[in-house]
Design goal:
The protein is of the alpha+beta class and 446 residues long. The protein contains nine helices and 23 strands. Helices cover 20% and strands 31% of the residues. The chain has an eleven-stranded mixed sheet, with helices on both faces. A three-stranded antiparallel sheet has the order 5-7-6, with no helix packed on it.
């Protein structure tokens, strides 16, 4: 485990109780320097024929395991992959070459087929059965999960819930924040009631421009969102009108820490994979984004503990050799590849930042329901290093510091043309603070 002081580790694993920031018992354990840890690679957003994916769960689990992943969560829309489910197969869904590959890989003793009223059906294996085929201690783990799929008006609002015991029905609500909060609360209630570690994470805020920074910053009890999603329709970079996900991240971090008294949100990278047969821009393929989690064991409990303690980084291809927060220094070292160069940027907001912001408006002057425009004080680049290793030393007035690594290597099978491999290091929050601003309201959208 990276050698963290207890204070710095505790600053990552904060939960919200009213307006207070309090350290959790999990954080105290995560700060124990006596634990022997290692990096585990995993994807937390995956779809199969149980919802709107185009392949069988065993084929998908095999793909990830064969490529060195250690854990995988199937996150089907409003569905836990359990119980007896028969899929009607057609040439466009589950049949044809897809079914033939499935038969060839697993054989007739495993693949169950039947004909009902003249239609061909294949039994979808529940997660418990898939686990018997693929799980291995310290090598591969399948984690029960689902994608709570809700909306408000035209805004799709999706939340992954990881390591659930029972499914969670979408709760609805009166506005975007209310819908998100009700669904997050349902996951946290199940965690409190069962004692089983689990967590929600907010998916692709820019999908159909569903969630603004002003909405995301207000959600309580949530610690995670997707800063990178490999689906071709999620607009990670935003556009002329809409903020990209990194800009949203900096706005949310700044206002939660300095104004709202809420813990920081941590950024995940995921596949959101649906398409497993044709690799192309425009397809939602596997292998585009994942998390590297530093934990002592490959178990749901250990992984969740480490995630909540900020002991992970998100990546679309860049791997790290070393990551440590020690004293007043944050050090990032890349695992370099021949012929590839790297830019390491340290990004943050300082106390006393300019709080001015304004809504984006139409040509007629009407405000749009999109993330506001904020001062350049928010999410400033504090230091840039061209190379495979860099260190940032705290100046004493930072609300947070995070890091971004960009590679010169173009990503294989990108979600968009021209995409470069990157990595995102979680925000370092030296001293949680409201910056003396309890009376400053958070901005709101129309």
């Amino acid at each position: 485990m990276s050698r963290l002081t207890s204070l710095l580790s505790l600053s990552f694993a904060l939960v919200c109780t009213g307006d207070a920031l309090v350290p959790t018992a999990l954080a105290a354990e995560a700060a124990n320097p006596g634990l022997s840890t290692r990096w585990w690679k995993g994807n937390l957003h995956t779809h199969s024929l149980w919802s709107d994916g185009d392949d069988y769960p065993e084929m998908i689990a095999g793909w990830y395991k064969e490529r060195g992943y250690h854990f995988l969560a199937f996150t089907e829309h409003n569905t836990m992959p359990e119980g007896d489910r028969w899929q009607t197969v057609t040439s466009k869904r589950g049949g044809g070459e897809v079914l033939e590959k499935y038969r060839t890989r697993f054989g007739p003793a495993w693949v169950q087929e039947r004909v009902v009223d003249g239609t061909n059906q294949v039994r979808l294996k529940p997660l418990g059965e898939v686990r018997t085929r693929f799980e291995e201690p310290d090598r591969f783990l399948l984690i029960p999960a689902m994608e709570i799929t809700d909306r408000h008006l035209v805004a799709p609002l999706h939340i992954n819930a990881v390591n659930l015991r029972d499914g969670v029905a979408p709760a609805g609500g009166s506005n975007v924040v209310d819908v998100l909060q009700r669904n997050i609360d349902a996951v946290l209630e199940q965690r409190a009631r069962t004692g089983q570690p689990m967590f929600p994470h907010i998916n692709h805020p820019n999908f159909v421009w569903g969630i603004t920074a002003e909405e995301l910053m207000r959600v309580r009890g949530e610690r995670f969102f997707e800063v990178y999603n490999g689906h071709p329709s999620v607009h990670n970079e935003g556009d002329e009108t809409h903020a990209g996900m990194e800009r949203v991240w900096d706005i949310v971090l700044t206002w939660r820490l300095a104004v709202l008294g809420l813990p920081p949100m941590l950024g995940l990278a995921v596949d959101d994979s649906h398409n497993y047969h044709n690799e192309a821009v425009g397809q939602s393929n596997p292998g585009r984004g994942w998390v590297m989690v530093k934990a002592p064991h490959l178990t749901p409990e250990a992984l969740i503990l480490a995630l909540e303690a900020g002991e992970f980084y998100a990546t679309s291809g860049v791997l790290l050799r070393d990551l440590r927060r020690e004293g007043d220094r944050l050090r990032v070292e890349v695992e370099p590849d021949d012929g590839v160069t790297y830019r390491i940027e340290f990004i943050g907001t300082r106390q006393g930042f300019d709080r001015q912001n304004e809504p984006v408006k139409t040509s007629a002057g009407a405000p749009l329901r999109v993330t506001h425009r904020y001062s350049d004080d928010i999410g400033r680049v504090l230091k840039v290093v061209e190379g495979s290793a860099a260190e940032y030393r705290l100046q004493g007035d930072e609300l947070y510091v995070r890091a971004r690594v960009t590679s010169t290597r173009l990503k294989a099978n990108p979600y968009r043309e021209g995409e470069h491999e990157m990595a995102w290091i979680q925000p370092w929050v030296p001293v949680p603070t409201r910056d003396g601003a309890r009376d400053v309201p958070a901005p709101s959208n129309p």
